[in-house]
Amino acid sequence: MADRTTTDDLDLSKIHIPEGFPPLTQPTKDENKFAKEKIKIEYVQPDDILEYAAICYEAFPDTFWDAFETPDRPSLEERTKRLAKHFLPWLSMPGYHAIKAVNTDTGEMMGIASWMENGKFPIYPTSYPMFPNYKFPSTYIPCTWRDDLVIPMGFDKTHNWSSEQVKEMYAHHSQKWFPEFEKYDIGRLAEMGETPHWYLAPLCVKEKYWARGVGKALSMWGIERADSATPPMPCVLEAFPNARPVYYHLGFRPTAHRGVCKETQLVRPAKGCQF
Known about the structure:
single chain; alpha+beta; 28% helix; globular; disordered N terminus
């Protein structure tokens, strides 16, 4: 992995919050936290996938969707259905762990996350013509937000989707969508190389449950598994600027690799390792 510098990067006063984004988040105060027994982490099931997508739309700011969807996009209900359809095939992929935080009192899904265990399961196409200059390991799980993977990953065949159905699923994506999520993979490859790691994308919590410990519970699910691996594995994610303080609190740090993901990429070193 690339070397890192941290002193200036951890100065919260230097974090630029884009217009339209919420203010800097802060670690949850003890008096606001749910008791541990009130949050149950479970795997997302196919019947959950529509709500999974709805939470993504609720948690991400409008400026995000305005940037990556077309002005003439369909209704939120239709876009949510399309996003759910997009994520559905990933639930059965090895190494992909979609989880949900459930309120044990009400049964409500309060938040979701997807952790990807890279370096263990053969999954990625070893021959991928769109990346002639990048050699992705076969065990590399790509950013699942990318809209170019249905055919390379064979999802169209496993779900009997016609080319017209695939086209419709992404018809509202702007030209910025693919380059944005492609760069996450390129940046992660530049930072991690073939180092096995756990990758978090996304983590979303319903607004009414912000600052209650739900996001931390979803984060720690993957961190604990990375720490207990033999040998322990680092964790990687991309974070909106306003979310950085929470991830700093969990041990994540900016990368010194000043590439395409310098504004978003954070890495938590493997247990027992230092930056």
